[in-house]
User: Which sequence fits this backbone?
Protein backbone atom coordinates (compact mmCIF):
# COMPACT_ATOMS: atom_id res chain seq x y z
CA UNK A 1 0.00 0.00 0.00
CA UNK A 2 1.26 3.48 -0.88
CA UNK A 3 2.61 5.39 2.11
CA UNK A 4 1.34 8.87 2.96
CA UNK A 5 3.85 11.55 1.99
CA UNK A 6 4.49 13.84 4.96
CA UNK A 7 6.44 17.13 4.97
CA UNK A 8 7.70 18.90 8.08
CA UNK A 9 8.07 22.68 8.27
CA UNK A 10 10.21 24.02 11.15
CA UNK A 11 13.13 21.71 11.85
CA UNK A 12 13.96 22.37 15.51
CA UNK A 13 13.56 19.84 18.35
CA UNK A 14 9.86 19.01 17.75
CA UNK A 15 10.36 18.74 13.96
CA UNK A 16 13.10 16.17 14.59
CA UNK A 17 10.91 14.15 16.99
CA UNK A 18 8.12 14.04 14.39
CA UNK A 19 10.61 12.89 11.76
CA UNK A 20 11.45 9.95 14.05
CA UNK A 21 7.72 9.31 14.47
CA UNK A 22 7.17 9.22 10.71
CA UNK A 23 10.18 6.94 10.17
CA UNK A 24 8.87 4.58 12.89
CA UNK A 25 5.53 4.28 11.12
CA UNK A 26 4.91 1.82 8.29
CA UNK A 27 2.16 3.95 6.74
CA UNK A 28 3.97 7.31 6.47
CA UNK A 29 7.00 8.43 4.45
CA UNK A 30 9.26 11.34 5.39
CA UNK A 31 8.80 12.98 2.02
CA UNK A 32 9.83 16.61 2.53
CA UNK A 33 11.08 19.24 4.91
CA UNK A 34 11.23 23.05 4.90
CA UNK A 35 13.00 25.67 6.99
CA UNK A 36 14.29 29.18 6.28
CA UNK A 37 17.49 28.37 8.21
CA UNK A 38 20.15 26.80 6.00
CA UNK A 39 21.87 25.27 9.01
CA UNK A 40 18.66 23.62 10.25
CA UNK A 41 17.95 22.26 6.75
CA UNK A 42 21.46 20.84 6.45
CA UNK A 43 21.43 19.22 9.91
CA UNK A 44 17.98 17.73 9.34
CA UNK A 45 18.84 16.39 5.88
CA UNK A 46 21.97 14.72 7.24
CA UNK A 47 20.10 13.04 10.09
CA UNK A 48 16.80 12.08 8.45
CA UNK A 49 17.37 12.10 4.66
CA UNK A 50 13.96 13.36 3.45
CA UNK A 51 13.30 13.02 -0.28
CA UNK A 52 12.83 16.77 -0.85
CA UNK A 53 14.21 19.85 0.89
CA UNK A 54 12.61 23.28 0.63
CA UNK A 55 13.34 26.72 2.02
CA UNK A 56 9.69 27.75 2.44
CA UNK A 57 6.41 26.05 3.26
CA UNK A 58 4.92 27.66 0.14
CA UNK A 59 7.34 25.74 -2.11
CA UNK A 60 6.63 22.52 -0.23
CA UNK A 61 2.84 22.98 -0.53
CA UNK A 62 3.13 23.36 -4.31
CA UNK A 63 4.30 19.73 -4.54
CA UNK A 64 1.25 17.66 -5.60
CA UNK A 65 2.72 14.46 -4.15
CA UNK A 66 2.56 15.84 -0.60
CA UNK A 67 -0.34 14.42 1.47
CA UNK A 68 0.21 16.03 4.87
CA UNK A 69 2.11 18.82 6.61
CA UNK A 70 3.57 18.86 10.12
CA UNK A 71 3.96 22.46 11.32
CA UNK A 72 6.64 23.13 13.94
CA UNK A 73 6.99 26.87 13.43
CA UNK A 74 6.97 29.54 16.15
CA UNK A 75 3.48 30.06 17.64
CA UNK A 76 2.43 33.12 15.60
CA UNK A 77 2.97 31.15 12.39
CA UNK A 78 0.73 28.23 13.41
CA UNK A 79 -2.46 29.87 12.14
CA UNK A 80 -1.16 31.05 8.73
CA UNK A 81 0.81 27.83 8.23
CA UNK A 82 -2.14 25.52 8.99
CA UNK A 83 -4.55 27.65 6.96
CA UNK A 84 -2.23 27.66 3.93
CA UNK A 85 -1.80 23.87 4.20
CA UNK A 86 -5.57 23.31 4.35
CA UNK A 87 -6.13 25.69 1.43
CA UNK A 88 -3.58 23.66 -0.55
CA UNK A 89 -5.65 20.52 0.20
CA UNK A 90 -3.17 18.98 2.68
CA UNK A 91 -3.98 17.29 5.98
CA UNK A 92 -2.24 19.05 8.82
CA UNK A 93 -0.60 18.38 12.16
CA UNK A 94 0.39 21.49 14.15
CA UNK A 95 2.59 21.71 17.22
CA UNK A 96 1.26 23.12 20.51
CA UNK A 97 -0.17 25.61 21.32
CA UNK A 98 -2.72 25.05 18.54
CA UNK A 99 -2.95 28.80 17.78
CA UNK A 100 -2.47 32.15 19.53
CA UNK A 101 -6.13 32.23 20.63
CA UNK A 102 -9.50 30.47 20.28
CA UNK A 103 -10.75 32.77 17.51
CA UNK A 104 -7.94 31.59 15.21
CA UNK A 105 -8.57 27.96 16.16
CA UNK A 106 -12.28 28.20 15.34
CA UNK A 107 -11.38 29.33 11.80
CA UNK A 108 -9.07 26.32 11.37
CA UNK A 109 -11.71 23.95 12.75
CA UNK A 110 -14.25 25.24 10.25
CA UNK A 111 -11.80 25.21 7.36
CA UNK A 112 -10.64 21.62 7.97
CA UNK A 113 -14.25 20.40 8.39
CA UNK A 114 -15.36 22.21 5.22
CA UNK A 115 -12.55 20.64 3.19
CA UNK A 116 -12.83 17.17 4.74
CA UNK A 117 -9.15 17.30 5.79
CA UNK A 118 -7.66 16.06 9.06
CA UNK A 119 -6.55 18.70 11.57
CA UNK A 120 -4.45 17.42 14.48
CA UNK A 121 -2.58 19.31 17.24
CA UNK A 122 0.66 18.19 18.85
CA UNK A 123 0.34 16.84 22.42
CA UNK A 124 2.61 13.81 22.63
CA UNK A 125 2.04 13.34 26.38
CA UNK A 126 -1.47 12.08 25.55
CA UNK A 127 0.32 9.02 24.14
CA UNK A 128 2.77 8.36 26.98
CA UNK A 129 2.65 4.95 28.66
CA UNK A 130 1.62 6.50 31.99
CA UNK A 131 -1.21 8.48 30.39
CA UNK A 132 -2.55 5.52 28.40
CA UNK A 133 -2.47 3.23 31.44
CA UNK A 134 -4.08 5.89 33.66
CA UNK A 135 -6.81 6.52 31.06
CA UNK A 136 -7.58 2.81 31.09
CA UNK A 137 -7.92 2.77 34.89
CA UNK A 138 -10.22 5.82 34.75
CA UNK A 139 -12.29 4.16 31.97
CA UNK A 140 -12.51 0.97 34.08
CA UNK A 141 -14.17 3.06 36.82
CA UNK A 142 -11.37 2.55 39.35
CA UNK A 143 -11.55 6.21 40.52
CA UNK A 144 -15.32 6.69 40.54
CA UNK A 145 -16.51 10.13 39.45
CA UNK A 146 -13.35 12.26 39.54
CA UNK A 147 -13.93 15.53 41.40
CA UNK A 148 -10.51 17.22 41.59
CA UNK A 149 -7.40 17.39 39.46
CA UNK A 150 -4.04 18.94 40.20
CA UNK A 151 -1.62 19.60 37.38
CA UNK A 152 1.85 21.05 37.57
CA UNK A 153 4.52 22.02 35.03
CA UNK A 154 7.09 24.10 36.87
CA UNK A 155 10.71 24.95 36.21
CA UNK A 156 12.92 27.07 38.43
CA UNK A 157 15.24 28.35 35.71
CA UNK A 158 13.80 27.57 32.27
CA UNK A 159 12.90 30.67 30.26
CA UNK A 160 13.10 29.62 26.57
CA UNK A 161 14.43 31.85 23.78
CA UNK A 162 13.59 30.31 20.39
CA UNK A 163 15.33 31.61 17.29
CA UNK A 164 15.18 35.42 17.48
CA UNK A 165 13.75 35.45 21.02
CA UNK A 166 10.14 34.82 19.94
CA UNK A 167 9.06 32.89 23.07
CA UNK A 168 9.02 36.03 25.25
CA UNK A 169 7.50 38.36 22.62
CA UNK A 170 3.71 38.22 23.04
CA UNK A 171 3.04 39.23 19.43
CA UNK A 172 4.91 36.12 18.27
CA UNK A 173 4.20 33.65 21.14
CA UNK A 174 0.67 34.61 22.26
CA UNK A 175 1.83 34.42 25.88
CA UNK A 176 4.55 33.08 28.14
CA UNK A 177 4.78 30.12 30.52
CA UNK A 178 1.02 29.55 30.33
CA UNK A 179 0.77 29.13 26.57
CA UNK A 180 4.12 27.29 26.41
CA UNK A 181 4.02 24.89 29.38
CA UNK A 182 0.51 25.47 30.72
CA UNK A 183 -1.02 24.05 27.58
CA UNK A 184 0.75 20.74 28.39
CA UNK A 185 -0.22 20.76 32.08
CA UNK A 186 -3.86 21.70 31.52
CA UNK A 187 -4.28 19.32 28.61
CA UNK A 188 -2.83 16.41 30.63
CA UNK A 189 -5.42 16.64 33.40
CA UNK A 190 -8.24 17.55 31.02
CA UNK A 191 -7.50 14.61 28.70
CA UNK A 192 -7.21 12.22 31.68
CA UNK A 193 -10.62 13.41 32.89
CA UNK A 194 -12.11 12.63 29.46
CA UNK A 195 -12.16 16.24 28.18
CA UNK A 196 -15.26 17.51 30.05
CA UNK A 197 -16.61 20.87 28.97
CA UNK A 198 -14.89 23.75 30.79
CA UNK A 199 -17.28 26.38 32.17
CA UNK A 200 -15.24 28.99 34.07
CA UNK A 201 -11.78 30.02 35.12
CA UNK A 202 -10.26 31.99 37.97
CA UNK A 203 -6.55 32.61 37.55
CA UNK A 204 -3.59 34.92 37.85
CA UNK A 205 -0.48 35.14 35.70
CA UNK A 206 2.74 36.83 36.81
CA UNK A 207 5.94 38.26 35.42
CA UNK A 208 8.70 38.22 38.05
CA UNK A 209 11.86 36.81 36.42
CA UNK A 210 12.46 38.90 33.29
CA UNK A 211 15.87 39.93 34.64
CA UNK A 212 17.09 36.30 34.38
CA UNK A 213 17.49 36.63 30.62
CA UNK A 214 18.79 39.20 28.21
CA UNK A 215 16.14 39.26 25.49
CA UNK A 216 15.03 42.23 23.38
CA UNK A 217 11.33 41.77 24.17
CA UNK A 218 9.86 40.24 27.31
CA UNK A 219 6.20 41.15 27.65
CA UNK A 220 4.75 37.76 28.69
CA UNK A 221 3.99 35.82 31.87
CA UNK A 222 6.61 33.59 33.51
CA UNK A 223 4.13 31.96 35.92
CA UNK A 224 0.41 31.12 35.95
CA UNK A 225 -1.78 29.73 38.74
CA UNK A 226 -5.49 29.11 38.97
CA UNK A 227 -8.58 26.96 38.92
CA UNK A 228 -10.88 25.72 36.16
CA UNK A 229 -14.46 24.50 36.72
CA UNK A 230 -16.03 21.86 34.48
CA UNK A 231 -19.60 21.10 33.49
CA UNK A 232 -19.52 17.79 35.41
CA UNK A 233 -18.81 19.63 38.69
CA UNK A 234 -15.10 18.73 38.82
CA UNK A 235 -12.41 21.38 39.36
CA UNK A 236 -8.77 21.55 38.34
CA UNK A 237 -5.97 23.46 40.00
CA UNK A 238 -2.95 24.31 37.85
CA UNK A 239 0.52 25.60 38.58
CA UNK A 240 2.90 26.63 35.78
CA UNK A 241 6.25 28.42 35.75
CA UNK A 242 9.25 29.03 33.52
CA UNK A 243 11.08 30.42 36.51
CA UNK A 244 10.48 30.44 40.26
CA UNK A 245 12.49 30.00 43.44
CA UNK A 246 11.37 26.42 43.84
CA UNK A 247 11.89 24.48 47.05
CA UNK A 248 14.41 21.66 47.43
CA UNK A 249 11.75 18.93 47.66
CA UNK A 250 11.32 19.30 43.88
CA UNK A 251 13.62 17.29 41.60
CA UNK A 252 16.73 18.86 40.10
CA UNK A 253 16.82 18.99 36.30
CA UNK A 254 19.83 19.05 33.98
CA UNK A 255 18.60 21.97 31.94
CA UNK A 256 16.06 23.89 34.01
CA UNK A 257 17.30 24.20 37.60
CA UNK A 258 14.47 22.29 39.27
CA UNK A 259 11.56 20.83 37.34
CA UNK A 260 8.34 19.03 38.18
CA UNK A 261 5.81 17.78 35.63
CA UNK A 262 2.94 15.95 37.26
CA UNK A 263 -0.78 15.37 37.05
CA UNK A 264 -3.00 13.82 39.72
CA UNK A 265 -6.69 13.01 39.47
CA UNK A 266 -8.77 12.39 42.60
CA UNK A 267 -11.90 10.24 42.77
CA UNK A 268 -13.96 8.86 45.64
CA UNK A 269 -12.62 5.32 45.05
CA UNK A 270 -9.02 6.11 44.15
CA UNK A 271 -6.51 8.75 43.10
CA UNK A 272 -4.20 8.33 40.12
CA UNK A 273 -0.82 10.04 39.79
CA UNK A 274 1.07 10.08 36.49
CA UNK A 275 4.65 10.73 37.61
CA UNK A 276 5.60 8.23 38.85
CA UNK A 277 2.51 6.32 37.81
CA UNK A 278 0.59 4.98 40.81
CA UNK A 279 -2.95 4.34 41.97
CA UNK A 280 -3.95 5.10 45.58
CA UNK A 281 -7.08 3.09 46.20
CA UNK A 282 -9.54 3.00 49.08
CA UNK A 283 -9.39 -0.58 50.38
CA UNK A 284 -11.57 -1.22 53.42
CA UNK A 285 -11.36 2.44 54.39
CA UNK A 286 -7.59 2.82 53.94
CA UNK A 287 -5.79 4.45 50.99
CA UNK A 288 -3.50 1.73 49.62
CA UNK A 289 -0.83 2.25 46.96
CA UNK A 290 -1.50 -0.18 44.11
CA UNK A 291 1.40 -1.05 41.83
CA UNK A 292 0.58 -0.67 38.13
CA UNK A 293 1.64 -3.81 36.36
CA UNK A 294 3.85 -3.28 33.27
CA UNK A 295 1.37 -5.35 31.25
CA UNK A 296 -1.06 -2.47 31.55
CA UNK A 297 1.38 -0.19 29.70
CA UNK A 298 0.41 -0.30 26.02
CA UNK A 299 2.77 -1.72 23.44
CA UNK A 300 4.88 0.96 21.75
CA UNK A 301 4.28 3.42 24.60
CA UNK A 302 8.03 3.97 24.80
CA UNK A 303 7.75 6.49 21.95
CA UNK A 304 4.77 8.81 22.44
CA UNK A 305 5.76 10.86 19.35
CA UNK A 306 5.51 7.72 17.18
CA UNK A 307 2.12 6.71 18.63
CA UNK A 308 0.85 10.25 18.14
CA UNK A 309 2.05 10.37 14.52
CA UNK A 310 0.46 6.96 13.88
CA UNK A 311 -2.92 8.25 15.09
CA UNK A 312 -2.59 11.25 12.75
CA UNK A 313 -1.72 8.99 9.80
CA UNK A 314 -4.52 6.53 10.67
CA UNK A 315 -6.98 9.45 10.83
CA UNK A 316 -5.95 10.52 7.31
CA UNK A 317 -6.40 6.92 6.11
CA UNK A 318 -9.88 6.86 7.70
CA UNK A 319 -8.82 4.06 10.08
CA UNK A 320 -9.14 6.07 13.32
CA UNK A 321 -10.61 9.22 14.78
CA UNK A 322 -8.00 11.95 15.41
CA UNK A 323 -7.46 11.89 19.19
CA UNK A 324 -6.05 15.46 19.24
CA UNK A 325 -9.04 16.92 17.42
CA UNK A 326 -9.88 20.42 16.22
CA UNK A 327 -12.82 20.62 18.64
CA UNK A 328 -10.55 19.85 21.58
CA UNK A 329 -8.03 22.43 20.33
CA UNK A 330 -10.82 25.04 20.39
CA UNK A 331 -11.73 24.15 24.01
CA UNK A 332 -8.08 24.24 25.02
CA UNK A 333 -7.54 27.67 23.49
CA UNK A 334 -10.76 28.90 25.13
CA UNK A 335 -9.38 27.82 28.52
CA UNK A 336 -6.09 29.64 27.87
CA UNK A 337 -7.87 32.78 26.65
CA UNK A 338 -10.09 32.77 29.75
CA UNK A 339 -7.08 32.40 32.05
CA UNK A 340 -5.52 35.56 30.57
CA UNK A 341 -8.88 37.38 30.77
CA UNK A 342 -9.42 36.34 34.39
CA UNK A 343 -5.93 37.48 35.29
CA UNK A 344 -6.39 40.88 33.65
CA UNK A 345 -9.79 41.45 35.28
CA UNK A 346 -9.09 39.89 38.67
CA UNK A 347 -12.39 37.96 38.36
CA UNK A 348 -13.67 34.47 37.63
CA UNK A 349 -14.70 34.41 33.96
CA UNK A 350 -17.16 32.14 32.14
CA UNK A 351 -15.95 30.35 29.02
CA UNK A 352 -17.35 31.09 25.58
CA UNK A 353 -18.51 27.46 25.37
CA UNK A 354 -20.43 27.54 28.69
N1 LIG B 1 5.66 19.23 21.75
C1 LIG B 1 6.67 19.71 22.43
O1 LIG B 1 7.06 19.16 23.47
C2 LIG B 1 7.37 20.94 21.94
C3 LIG B 1 8.68 21.22 22.35
C4 LIG B 1 9.30 22.36 21.86
C5 LIG B 1 8.61 23.22 21.01
N2 LIG B 1 7.32 22.95 20.65
C6 LIG B 1 6.58 23.86 19.77
O2 LIG B 1 7.17 23.81 18.46
C7 LIG B 1 7.18 25.10 17.86
C8 LIG B 1 8.61 25.47 17.46
O3 LIG B 1 9.39 25.56 18.62
P1 LIG B 1 11.00 25.46 18.56
O4 LIG B 1 11.45 25.39 19.97
O5 LIG B 1 11.40 24.41 17.61
O6 LIG B 1 11.34 26.93 17.97
P2 LIG B 1 12.66 27.36 17.20
O7 LIG B 1 12.61 28.85 17.11
O8 LIG B 1 13.86 26.69 17.81
O9 LIG B 1 12.50 26.71 15.74
C9 LIG B 1 11.58 27.18 14.79
C10 LIG B 1 12.08 26.79 13.41
O10 LIG B 1 11.21 27.35 12.42
C11 LIG B 1 12.00 27.95 11.39
N3 LIG B 1 11.20 29.00 10.78
C12 LIG B 1 10.79 30.17 11.34
N4 LIG B 1 10.03 30.87 10.49
C13 LIG B 1 9.92 30.13 9.35
C14 LIG B 1 9.22 30.30 8.14
N5 LIG B 1 8.46 31.37 7.90
N6 LIG B 1 9.33 29.32 7.20
C15 LIG B 1 10.08 28.22 7.42
N7 LIG B 1 10.78 28.01 8.56
C16 LIG B 1 10.69 28.94 9.52
C17 LIG B 1 13.23 28.46 12.08
O11 LIG B 1 14.31 28.65 11.20
C18 LIG B 1 13.48 27.33 13.10
O12 LIG B 1 14.28 26.30 12.55
C19 LIG B 1 6.55 26.05 18.89
O13 LIG B 1 5.21 26.28 18.58
C20 LIG B 1 6.67 25.32 20.21
O14 LIG B 1 5.63 25.64 21.12
C21 LIG B 1 6.70 21.82 21.08
Assistant:
Amino acid sequence: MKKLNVGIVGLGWPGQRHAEGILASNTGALYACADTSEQRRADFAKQFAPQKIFETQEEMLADPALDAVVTCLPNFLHFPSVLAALEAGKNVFCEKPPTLNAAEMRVLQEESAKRGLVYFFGRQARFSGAMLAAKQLVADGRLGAAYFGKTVFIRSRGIPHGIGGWFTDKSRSGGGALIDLGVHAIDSIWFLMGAPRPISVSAQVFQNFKSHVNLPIFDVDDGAYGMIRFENGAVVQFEVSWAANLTDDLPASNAYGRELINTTLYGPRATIRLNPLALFEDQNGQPVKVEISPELLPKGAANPFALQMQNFLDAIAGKAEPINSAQQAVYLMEMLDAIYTSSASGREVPLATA
